[in-house]
């Protein structure tokens, strides 16, 4: 299929199902969230993004774009959110200031918690999800679904798709109540299938992983033949869900992708393989062909990831999952740009031209309020965040403190020690400005 024809095909079918992308930000060279939101809306066929926190700058940037957003609750917050009051505070702080202007679709409570195997988080996940669902209802918010994303260490050993079952230690105690909650709330079961990480388990059948021509896998128990690894992973999930009576719950692919570069000994993390996997993934998912056990079905899918992230720890491959470089040029042309062609580099603020002082992620509201009070008492220009000012909304402590802290930093000549605030602040080159609120 030619590139232009493919792009036209993809543009048409995305109106019927979501094709999204994971927007990670573990990098020091990324464009501002507003530039990212504009790029996704105007230059790509993506209609949804998934982020790994509730970054207010990102949520503001996607306001009124009609791009759906999935936000994530940090794993460490799960136990505290079993308390309904804490869940209501979380919704009031992280959802209400932005919704519905920002089209928040899912709250993913934690990410791959069975992989990290912290029992307090595992035991409290479903109660926390129930509390957040109730908190949304109490806030009058009906359009956001609560779910959680799983790595595929959830199965009981390696088996053909039709015989796959959830791990015996968690099937009844964890997955049954989780899936019953998802069914009751009409929320999806979110999985992160990565054939790249399953290569050893599948006997290093690279062509099978990359959707290339191969002998396939025959499942004698179902009589189905699998020509690619993703279909097999999806059907393993469906079989495990069906075994506990919840095969009717929708499946969403929260993450999947392939790295384009790796360390010297990594021969599979290449541009060619990434192009093959992600290009075939997009065609396969949006074709609506489904899988052998779930035919004629489109799966809402979020490709990992939007950008290469230069500060991710680990091997080189971890920093090279992106479809795009920070200047928005494609690492390889997978067919998600609207005209099917590489885009010229947009005008981006030079990273070194201006610096801003912002709170670090995870800083508490109490710390932010203290920073806000201190900055305003020490000569920061806080009039724009007063009622009626251009930066008064959203009226969250984080938003107001961010403006005040940056104003204080600017008044002090942008000295590095002026952006400390007892270790709760950091310097960034990403402009936090939004709408009519312009940061000095």
TrEMBL record:
<protein>
    <recommendedName>
        <fullName>glucan endo-1,3-beta-D-glucosidase</fullName>
        <ecNumber>3.2.1.39</ecNumber>
    </recommendedName>
</protein>
<dbReference type="Pfam" id="PF07983">
    <property type="entry name" value="X8"/>
</dbReference>
<keyword id="KW-0336">GPI-anchor</keyword>
<feature type="domain" description="X8">
    <location>
        <begin position="355"/>
        <end position="439"/>
    </location>
</feature>
<keyword id="KW-0732">Signal</keyword>
<comment type="similarity">
    <text>Belongs to the glycosyl hydrolase 17 family.</text>
</comment>
<keyword id="KW-0325">Glycoprotein</keyword>
<keyword id="KW-0472">Membrane</keyword>
<dbReference type="InterPro" id="IPR000490">
    <property type="entry name" value="Glyco_hydro_17"/>
</dbReference>
<dbReference type="Pfam" id="PF00332">
    <property type="entry name" value="Glyco_hydro_17"/>
</dbReference>
<dbReference type="GO" id="GO:0005886">
    <property type="term" value="C:plasma membrane"/>
</dbReference>
<dbReference type="InterPro" id="IPR044965">
    <property type="entry name" value="Glyco_hydro_17_plant"/>
</dbReference>
<dbReference type="InterPro" id="IPR017853">
    <property type="entry name" value="GH"/>
</dbReference>
<dbReference type="GO" id="GO:0006952">
    <property type="term" value="P:defense response"/>
</dbReference>
<keyword id="KW-0326">Glycosidase</keyword>
<dbReference type="GO" id="GO:0098552">
    <property type="term" value="C:side of membrane"/>
</dbReference>
<keyword id="KW-0449">Lipoprotein</keyword>
<dbReference type="GO" id="GO:0042973">
    <property type="term" value="F:glucan endo-1,3-beta-D-glucosidase activity"/>
</dbReference>
<dbReference type="InterPro" id="IPR012946">
    <property type="entry name" value="X8"/>
</dbReference>
<keyword id="KW-1015">Disulfide bond</keyword>
<dbReference type="GO" id="GO:0005975">
    <property type="term" value="P:carbohydrate metabolic process"/>
</dbReference>
<feature type="signal peptide">
    <location>
        <begin position="1"/>
        <end position="18"/>
    </location>
</feature>
<keyword id="KW-0611">Plant defense</keyword>
<keyword id="KW-0378">Hydrolase</keyword>
